[in-house]
Amino acid sequence: MIPKLSLERLSVLPFIGKWTLLSLLVAALVGSASAFFLFALDWATHTRIAHAWLIWLLPLGGFAVGLLYLWFGREVEGGNNLLIDEIHDPQKTIPLRMAPLVLIGTVITHLFGGSAGREGTAVQMGGALADQVHKVFGLPTSERRLLLMAGISAGFASVFGTPLAGAIFGLEVLAIGRMRYDAILPCLLAAVAGDQVGLWWGVQHTHYAIPYIPQPTAMGLGAAMAAGVAFGLTGKLFAESVHALAALFKRFIAFAPLRPLIGGACVAIAASMFDASAYLGLGIPNIVAAFQHPLPSYDFAGKLAFTIATLGAGFKGGEVTPLFYIGAALGNALSPLLHLPFPLLAGMGFVAVFAGAANTPLASTVMAMELFGPEIGIYAGLACVVAYLCSGHSGIYRAQRVGIAKRRGVPENIRLSEWAELRNAQPPSRLSAEGSPKSRQD
Fold first, then answer.
1. Are 126 and 86 in contact (CB under 8 A)?
2. 397-433, pLDDT tens digit by residue?
3. Separation CA 434–CA 339 (nearest Å)
4. Does position 278 have pLDDT exceeding 80, yes or no?
């Protein structure tokens, strides 16, 4: 007779086996899609650099993508917010066309010089492809949630080469202060395997070097926390500015394709007036430079402005790589004030501005250790946590829920978009802590 304890241990094996197979399937699809996307993005970037005049086609490119979404993509234009909403409040399968639409839109943005990232595209492709797996196998709603989270993790990990951070990102991004532990295995397997699939296809990730990380001291850790305040406020400024500009465009321009047309014209004119080629596209050369030598103190502000203009006007692409640029350049500029090596502060800013803007301090801290080595963990962890706290209840993903509020007076389970509306309508001290009805609108 098999002891009861042994039977309990064996009962978990079907769960492990099932999610190993499903996660590997998602990873194969998402890792391959991310590899294709990264190769297309490299082509677009090299083509733009070789033909600087392409910036003048940015308005037309934005108009074309706007028409594409108007005709074929109305159901998926919510992007990352749609994925988060579907995990919290499942309604219907995400259309597969989300993947090619966001890929085409992002490549066009980069080909013609828009300042945007790549994480949003990889995450959306990951979610859309994972949901097709759910559709094929007819999984129940509870398992569909896990599969979508695995797709998000695989997309994030494969595009940045950070499997542990990708796994935690898929768990952490859904709600402030709360994670689902039942999704740890699918997210981790999908992130690790998705990253490996991308490497098998020949994807090469940028390496950033911090030559020297000093031993932690009271002064050094205090400086890290002070930097975290600046990083968090910058992340908050970025998120709220993008949302405010997008709302302004929607208020005054009813026909959606005209928004990137006008916004693209403004970006193109500004780029020519200020010789802002460094602020276009991903900006990876300048991110690398932030670890190698001092940059102009205004560099982070230039990237901030061009990215807000690009994404606020409705161009497709992610926010994370521009946040890396903004954070690395800001950290570089803070070095003379905080008396820490500029490569160290660049690495801290790289992840901490993202932590504040995305409300993902754990994923950001782990990303720092994956990219720069475990020695940065204490400095990066402090900077990310302080940035997370200082960014308040705002963020680049407006469908995030408030799991555990950062301060009193904020309703639990409310979307960040709903909280922004309540906050603007009346003083926070008068807001009820009872929550509010959920909305699928952004």
1. no
2. 999 999 999 988 888 889 999 998 888 776 545 544 4
3. 45
4. yes
Report which of 42, 291, 34, 40 is spatially closest to residue 163, judged by C-alpha positions.
34
Rg, the chain, Cα only: 21
Q: What SS3 class is residue 318?
A: strand
Max distance between CA atoms of the chain, in angstroms, equals 81
- How confident is residue 4, by pLDDT bands cut at 50, 70 and 90? low
pTM across the whole model: 0.93
Rounded to the nearest angstrom, the gap between the alpha carbon of residue 134 and the centroid of all alpha carbons in its chain is: 24
**What is the distance, to the nearest Å, from the Cα of residue 184 to the centroid of all Cα atoms in its chain?**
19
| CA–CA separation, 239 and 397 (whole Å) | 8
Which tokens belong to 154?
A: 């695989």
Q: Is 23 exposed, middle or buried (0-12, 13-18, 19+ CB in 10 A)?
A: buried
CA-wise closest residue to 171 among 160, 193, 186 = 186
pLDDT digits (tens, 9 = 90+) for 7-61: 566 678 888 999 999 999 999 999 999 999 999 999 999 999 999 999 999 999 9
The Cα 270–Cα 287 span in angstroms is: 21
3-state secondary structure 174-219: CEECCCCHHHHHHHHHHHHHHHHHHHHCCCCCCCCCCCCCCCCCHH
**Spatial separation of the C-alpha atoms in residues 125 and 148, rounded to whole Å:** 11
Residues 159 and 106: beta-carbon distance below 8 Å:
no
Report which of 402, 382, 324, 362 is spatially closest to residue 187, judged by C-alpha positions: 362
Question: For residues 64 and 255, what is the distance between their CA atoms, to the nearest angstrom?
Answer: 13
Q: Give the distance from CA 382 to its chain's centroid.
A: 20
Contact 114, 280 (CB under 8 A): yes
